[in-house]
Amino acid sequence: MVIKDMADIKQKLAQGNFGMLKAGGIASWLAQLVKEDDGISMIKELRAGGAISDLDLYSWLVKRLAVRSKQTRIGDHPANLLIIELQCLGPIEDFNNLFTLIEASKIDPEAKAKVTHCDYVGHVLLLLADIVPDGTLIRNMRDVEHHVSNQHFAFLKANNVSRWVSDIAKHKRCLLMFEDLRRHNVISDLDIYKQLDHNEAIWELRAGRTHEIFSLLKTFPRDGSLVIDDSEDIWHIANDYSLPLIRELLAIGAEIDHNALLANTFAGDHNREFSLLDFLLSHYEVFSEQALVSACACILSETAYRVELSDQNAIKTLLGKIQSLNTVFDQSIYWADWHRDDYSLFGLLFRSKPEWLISWYPDYVPSESAMEEMDWDYVVCEGEFDKYHLAELKNLVSHGAELPIEKIIEALEDNDRDNYAEQLRVLSYVQN
What pLDDT does 310 receive? Predict the structure, then answer.
């Protein structure tokens, strides 16, 4: 039966029709209930009658506080003290932090005072602090231990015990608890994998915590969740010394975002990870065009002033798999967006290694958009425009390429390259 309005709720409550109220979705009316003059009393009565649960109340509290914390101007309202208190503990959306504050309000007069003056939000929080738990919510590790020991696995799954995994990992019986929870599909392979410490994982494959976690994961068939695509995870393993860890992950059936891994292989402060590059290119047959051009761009960016033979060979290998130098860096992908200033792979090659374009692609004509969309100020300034850039522009004109000559000349003049600007003016007469 659908609840019509507040009057309908009060009538059913007076009649003691808790089952009808629960079936009608009374929990979705909490936002309206708390604002009633007798709202907290009504909530107490509804909870006592089983129409709403502790889980309903906690879920509403966390959602409401999260909304308030994201407001651009939250002012001096007393409820903000509660938000600030929670933010000091961690993410407001995390039930664990709310539990911590509620437990503090039971024993700390100062904490309770802050909560007391937080309008209906504080009233609901104090209500939860005062009442005896109804068993619908996991509040702490003692509850987790209790339910695992009594094999309440359906309850644990329904109450999202996976958010307690990091706390379980610190428990002396963590491996046994993980095994029980994973066997009953309460937690996932990914939940267990996330307990690895990236700084230690690569050194503990044969012993220690990493070995224990991998041994546990090997016990069960994959559940489809062990997909390594988090940007931080990828960054940590994008290096040669993580190869044993990568091989072990693939051996147990993990899926790795190999496109992101390839794109990160030479990124930032990573060294020249040629072993990882060789492994990826031999292990995976297909890569996205964005991954290939981004990996190539990283090597070009890192070797702009010092190119070793191994760098050049790696670039040639990647270029051999790339379909078009006109490929534009996709700004919606974080690792492709790193290279957006060059617009396309052609733009990056022209800026950093125009002599390679002349040597390797003497007949190549880029698309008109690849030339037009280039930031020529950036190219001239960062690329330190020289005779090779001019030679490549002349080569392009001889092959019929349409160049934004005036835009290039303006950039050259703005960066005190008047000699090249004058030579380009002569070239523009040829083009016209």
Answer: 78
Which residue, among 289, 244, 242, 280, has the nearest Cα to 261 in the 3D structure? 280
SS3 166: helix
Tell me whether residue 199 is exposed, middle or buried, using C-beta atoms within 10 angstroms of its C-beta: 0 to 12, 13 to 18, 19 or more: exposed
Note the pTM of the prediction, 2 decimals.
Answer: 0.72
Sketch the domain layout of the chain as residue ranges. Answer: 6-130, 343-432
CA distance 299 to 264: 10
The number of beta carbons lying within 10 Å of the beta carbon of residue 271 is 12
Are 190 and 227 in contact, with CB atoms under 8 Å apart? yes
Residue type at 230? D
Residue with tokens 């996976």: 162
Alpha helices in 265-401 (DSSP H): 274-283, 289-302, 309-321, 334-337, 345-352, 354-360, 368-372, 376-382, 387-398
Angstrom distance (rounded) from CA 244 to CA 202? 7
Sequence-ordered list of residues with C-beta below 8 angstroms from that of 138, at least 6 positions apart, any chain: 144, 147, 156, 159, 161, 164
pLDDT (tens digit, 9 = 90+) per residue, 85-116?
A: 555 545 544 555 666 666 666 656 665 665 55
Judge residue 130's burial from the number of C-beta atoms within 10 Å of its C-beta, 0-12 exposed, 13-18 middle, 19 or more buried. exposed
pLDDT per residue as tens digits for the range 114-154: 555 566 777 777 777 777 777 777 777 888 898 999 999 99
Q: Is the pLDDT of residue 317 over 90?
A: yes
- In this structure, are residues 282 and 256 in contact, taking their beta carbons and an 8 Å threshold? no
Cα–Cα distance measured from residue 338 to residue 346, given in angstroms and rounded to the nearest whole number: 15
Give the integer Cα–Cα distance in Å for 396 and 401. 5
